[in-house]
Amino acid sequence: MGKANGKGEVERKRMDAEHELPPAEEDGFAESASAADVAEDAPAAENELARVRAERDQLLDRIARQQAEFENVRKRAAREQRDFKDYAVTEAVQSLLPVLDSFERALKTAPGSEFRSGVELIHKQLADALARLGVRAIAAQGEPFDPRHHEAVEVVESTAAADHHVLEELQRGYMLKERLLRPAMVRVAKHPKK
After folding, report:
1. Rounded CA gap, 135 and 90, in Å?
2. CB 189 within 8 A of CB 156
3. pLDDT digits (tens, 9 = 90+) for 94-138
4. In terms of residue numbers, what domain contains 97?
């Protein structure tokens, strides 16, 4: 039995040794810190706190900038999508303008016939369809010459119109909403010098 007690005693000592806490100095914590040690750590802690606050402020600034940039991108994408939707028909309308021109020329050459009334009806249908898409003719005849909307093919000395006004429209110009599809081709009046 003495042998069993000896084994139990050894086992108990081993378990106590395993669960024994190391002295406080070994962990880096002194049981009593001196006032000088605390005073030394205070500036270091303040410096660390200032560094962390500066880092936080930089991160908040970056987040705010990223949010503003995201909002700008979102607005730009919405504007581009709206513009695309508004002007997606530009090429189709431009391809129809020569057809409209042909109708207008046909109407000038065949007055007073049944054929003319049919052409007028087709011309009106085409013009109405284009108007529903936002296409409108540019006023030219008798208007002041505007290089943003008119293309001067010829400058004619004439007193039939005011100086630098459109004397004659050779080909009608068109706008799609606020975008120029085609400028009006015009002759511009210029008063002769005296």
Report:
1. 9
2. yes
3. 888 888 888 888 787 766 677 777 788 888 888 888 888 889 999
4. 90-133
